Amino acid sequence: GSPRRLLLVSNSTLHGGGYLGHCQQHIQSFLGEKVKRVLFVPYALHDRDAYARTARAKFESLGYGLDSIHESCDPVEAVRKSEAIFIGGGNTFRLLKALYDNCLIQEIRKRVLEDGIPYMGSSAGTNVATISIHTTNDMPIVYPPSLQALGLVPFNINPHYLDPDVKSTHMGETREERIRQYHEEPNTPPVLGLREGALLLVEGDKATLQGVTGARLFLRGKKPTEHEPGTDFSFLLIDS
């Protein structure tokens, strides 16, 4: 079995709450008492200093020190020494390009999949944990060398998944239609639509849906299915 431990969160902020407020208990039980410091990756936002301040304040309130990778003169070495990694949200294309630019794809994979350090992602940080960023909602504002991501799990996720608003007069494609278009391409992996407030906990070869909202699962050539918190998604970890 894999030693991987992942906490993949749909969104950083839930309506009515503060930064990571809706999942802070999940974070504490996930990181536990062994982890003392978290390595934060703020590459998805332009103002990395401000982003690091926000994340640092939150993690310190939970009892963890936080080092931001953008303050390190050697990002690869920072990953190699890290006890846990948290990649925050923002623009997924900007984030993935920076991971490639700093030669961090293989380093993070090794730390998580071989060394078993905890990996937490929210929004864009959840996107890059998957096979590729094909199912992000973000605009391609920069051009990463590849859309292939960290591949910590063998499927894709659509964070902030939105159901169609039955009262809306908007005629553009729904999120479901966009994911179906993705699955019209050959050999495309499953897509888990994580609604705001949902998160996926991966421990080794076990994956469990947690949080306060459900998820919608899209498998190529099949009708999408609805799933409540507590659902066992371990079958998605079997690389198809």
UniProtKB/TrEMBL annotation:
UniProt keywords, alphabetically: Cytoplasm, Dipeptidase, Hydrolase, Protease, Serine protease
Classification via Gene3D superfamilies: 3.40.50.880
InterPro entries named among the record's database cross-references: Class_I_gatase-like, Peptidase_S51
SUPFAM superfamilies: Class I glutamine amidotransferase-like (SSF52317)
GO cellular component, one term: cytoplasm
GO BP annotations, alphabetical order: proteolysis
A matching Pfam family: Peptidase_S51
GO molecular function: dipeptidase activity; serine-type peptidase activity
Secretion signal, residue range per the UniProt entry: none
Known catalytic reactions: Dipeptidase E catalyzes the hydrolysis of dipeptides Asp-|-Xaa. It does not act on peptides with N-terminal Glu, Asn or Gln, nor does it cleave isoaspartyl peptides
Superkingdom classification of source: Eukaryota
Keyword Cytoplasm: yes
EC number(s) from the headed UniProt entry: 3.4.13.21
Family membership noted in the UniProt record: Belongs to the peptidase S51 family.
Xref: NCBIfam families: PRK05282.1
UniProt name for this protein: dipeptidase E
Name of the coding gene: Aada
